[in-house]
Amino acid sequence: MSQENNLQKQGIVDEPEARRILLEDPDNFEALCYMGLFHIRNKEFPESIGFFVNALKHQIATNEVEASLVSAISNLTKNAIERNECFPAENLLSECLGAIPENPSIYYFYSFFLSKFGKYEKALDLSEVGLKIDNRDVKLYDAMGLSYTGLGKYDLALNSFDQALQIDPKFASALINKSRALIEIGQSNDALGILRDLVESERENIHVLNNLGLALSDIKELNESIKSLEKAIEINNDFAEAHFNLARVFLMKGDYRRGWEEHEWRWKCRDFDSEFRKFPYQTWNGGDIKGKKILVWSEQGIGDEIMFLSPLKQLISDGATVVLECSDKLVNIFSRSLPDVTVVPRTTPPKKDTLMSDIEFQLPLASLSRFYRNSSESFSSNSGEYLFPKTSLVAQLNQRYRDLGDGPLVGICWRSGNLKVGAERSIPLKLWKEILIKRPCRFLSLQYGDSRSDTGIFKNNPDIHIHLDEKVNPLEDAESWFAQIAVVDLVISVDNSTIQVSGSQGVPTWTLVNFNPEWRFGLRGEKNDWHPSMKVYRQHKEGDWESVISKVADDFTGWLETFIG
Predict the structure, then answer these.
(1) Domain containing residue 503: CATH number
(2) 201 lies in a domain?
(3) pTM, entire model
(4) pLDDT in tens, 55-87
(5) What is the 3-state secondary structure (H, E, C) of 436-484?
(6) What's the structural domain count of the chain?
(7) Beta strands at 534-538 and 509-513: parallel, antiparallel or unpaired
(8) What is the spatial distance between Cα 478 and Cα 472, in angstroms, rounded to a whole number?
C-alpha cells in the first residue's frame, strides 16, 4: 500500500484537509508527510523537502517517508544543476542530511551536487562518510571519482570508478565518468574503448554521445566527432556542453562561421572558466556600429585576452567608440597599443567607466571573432603586430642582454602550467640539448615560475647556458614580460601564454604543440591564423617530442646561418 493510501486511511484525503489539520496541529506527522507528497506531485521539490524535514523532526522516518524524501532530493538536485543554481538547494540538502543521516543516498546526491558546483573537497568528504554507512554503494564510489576528477587527482578518480565497476560492471554513470577522466588526461583511446561499447546500450544518452565526440576529436576523427555531438544536441538542444565541444571541433577544422555560432553556448557551460559580466546594455549583434559606444569585456585567461584582442581594431575602423575592460595586468599595454580606446581594469563591482549613460552595447571579447574572424580569409586583415611594449624597458633589457655573448638572442619556454594538459604540452628540458648546443647564440629563459631546478640539469655542461633573468617575473609584471619578449630575435616555445605575447608583437615564434593541440592551432600545417609570425611544429605521434625537437634543431641550424650571414 502506498504512503498516500496509508495517509488517506488516517483521514487525510486531500491537500485542504492536510492544511486544516496543520492549522490546529502544526507538528502533525501525517499531515506534514501528505503535504510533502502533494508538492512532489506538483514538482515543487523545495517545498516538498521542507515538509518532510519538518515531519522528521517529530517522528523517526518510515521506509516510505524516507523513500519519498530521497525522491524529492533527487529531483531537487537535478533541477538545480540544470538551472545552474547552487542556492537554496545546498541549504536544503544540508537540512536533509540532518533529517536522514544514516541514508547513503543523501550523501550521494549531496556529494554529486557539490561536485557539479566545483566544491570538490566537501563533496569528497560526503562520499567518504556515505561509504562508511554502505561500502558497496556504487553511486558513492562514482561520486567520489567525480570529486577526485575535479581536484585533478586522476589516479584516485580512476580507482574510485573502478571500485564502482567491480561491484556493478555495467554501471553506466561510472563508465561515463571514467571515460571523461581518461579524456582529460589524454588517454582518449582508452576512453573510446569504453564509449564504443557503452553507446550500443545507451544510444540516447547525451553524456555518452558528448564524451564520444570529445574522444573522437582527440584522435582527429573530426567528422565522426561532429556526428556524435550533433546527435547529442538533436536529443537535447539545450545541452550546452555538447554545443561548446562542437564549437571547438568546427574551429579546429577551420569552419569559423559555424564554430563561433556554437561558441556562444560557452556561457551556459557550468565548467566554463569565465563569468558572464552582467552589464545593463544590449548585446551587439553585428549591426551598424558607426557612431555608437560599445563596452567590450575580456574573458578567460591572459593568453586568451591577448589573442582575442586582434579583431578590435576592425571594430574601431567600423566607427565604434570602445570601452575595453580587461585584466589589470594588461591595462597599460592595451592602453598604449590602442590609444583611441578607454581601457579599464576588470573589477567587482565594475569601474565607473563601464557604467556610462552613453554606452549602448556590450560584447564579450571572444565574441568579436564571430563578426571579424568568420573565415580563414578574414584573418588577412591581421598584420600580426597589434600590441607594443614600453620602449624604455626594451632599451634597458637590450643593454642588459648585450653582455650575454655573441649571436642572436633566442627565448625558450619548455613548460606549460595548464593543470589538466600541461604535462602533455611540456617538453623536458633535457630533450632540448640538440638545440641548446648551437653556436653562436644566446639563450634566454622565458619560462614563468621558478625554473632553476629545470635548468640545473646543465650546470656541469660548459657547452650549454640558459640565462635566467630573475628581475623579470611574467606572473607579476606584464610590462617587463612583454618587453623581454620584444627584444628576442626568436621565440621557441611550447603552447602557453608566451606565444600569445610574442605573436601579438610580431616576434618570430616557433610553437611546439602536442598531438592533440588546442583548436586555435588547426588540424595541420605550419601556419597559424591568429599570428602571422608564428610557425607551428606538430607531434605526429602521441608523446613523441624527440622527432619534433630534431626537426626544430635542423631548422634552427638554417635559421642561425641565415641570421648570422
Answers:
(1) 3.40.50.2000
(2) no
(3) 0.92
(4) 999 898 889 999 999 999 999 999 999 888 999
(5) HCCCCCEEEECCCCCCHHHHHHHCCCCCCCEECCCCCCCCCCHHHHHHH
(6) 3
(7) parallel
(8) 9
